[in-house]
Design goal:
Blueprint (H helix, E strand, L loop, with lengths): L1 H15 L2 H16 L2 H4 L3 E12 L2 E14 L12 E7 L5 E5 L4 E5 L2 E4 L2 H13 L1 H7 L6 E10 L2 E9 L5 E7 L5 E9 L6 E13 L5 E10 L2 E13 L21
Antiparallel strand pairs: 1-2, 1-13, 2-3, 3-4, 4-5, 5-6, 7-8, 8-9, 9-10, 10-11, 11-12, 12-13
């Protein structure tokens, strides 16, 4: 009889959990699985591996890539301003790449720095604002709405599905592995600047490993747009919170030649 009473009590408790409470719980469990305070206080990250780009599901480019990321916790309006800088270097010598700052982006080669087209910069910004790791690291202080869509099975793995919506009505749907609590898939839609249609952006996260600061991070990332693969990266190494990561990585050299867009 005591066991029956306890079981009924647990059942009532589960039923009393609203979709917002369940969504928030799943997200909080994810933060703890990623490393808790170690993840929330991560200042920078370096990832090295192979990057592949695709066009109409066919390989269109590949390169050795080293991606440097630095977070800026001083940004107040995180709903509209990026609180991160990213340097993507390519090749064994890392002698060309792309620099993304808070308000602009540049292709960098031996010829100089060329500003990226506005639509490419806006796509990067929108993708970053929807990124689940960026949301958890930077945007948790915003008035976000977490709504559970329940459980399901994705690629033979049980998942919890949560919609995360911000004050501007931007929503990203995230699939969290039920056992590891880690994100395995995210989906959002953005307006195509050319066709004006909604593009469905899907990202898959797999092969989690522990970084030097104890944070769990996906070493395999795949992106798709409207069902077609557009990008994939396989990391072979990654470190975090390195004191060797200098500010000049995230700045244009003072003497660099500025090229026309």
């Amino acid at each position: 009889m005591k066991f029956l009473i306890v079981s009924l009590g647990c059942l009532v408790s589960l039923r009393a959990e609203t979709i917002q409470q369940r969504g928030k719980r799943v997200v909080d469990e994810c933060v703890e699985a990623l490393g808790g305070d170690r993840f929330l206080n991560m200042q920078n990250r370096e990832t090295h591996g192979q990057a592949f780009s695709f066009y109409r599901d066919k390989l269109s480019g590949l390169a050795i890539a080293t991606i440097y990321t630095r977070y800026d916790s001083g940004v107040k309006d995180t709903a509209h301003e990026l609180a991160v800088r990213e340097r993507q270097n390519f090749g064994k010598k890392q002698d060309y790449g792309v620099l993304f700052t808070e308000k602009a982006a540049y292709d960098i080669t031996f010829r100089g720095a060329r500003p990226l087209a506005d639509d490419r910069w806006e796509r990067y910004k929108d993708t970053t604002l929807h990124d689940i790791f960026y949301i958890l690291r930077i945007r948790r202080g915003e008035p976000l709405i977490y709504e559970s869509r329940g459980s399901d099975v994705l690629d033979n793995a049980p998942v919890e599905i949560v919609d995360i919506t911000d004050a501007d009505d931007r929503t990203v749907t995230v699939y969290f592995h039920k056992s590891t609590k880690l994100p395995v898939r995210q989906v959002f839609k953005r307006r195509n600047a050319v066709t004006k249609d909604l593009d469905e952006e899907v990202t898959l996260f797999t092969t989690y490993r522990e970084l030097s600061n104890g944070v769990q991070w996906p070493f395999s990332i795949e992106r798709m747009r409207n069902g077609e693969k557009i990008f994939q990266m396989f990391a072979d190494s990654a470190t975090a919170d390195s004191a060797k990561m200098k500010d000049d990585l995230f700045e244009l050299p003072a003497n660099i030649k500025m090229l026309k867009p």
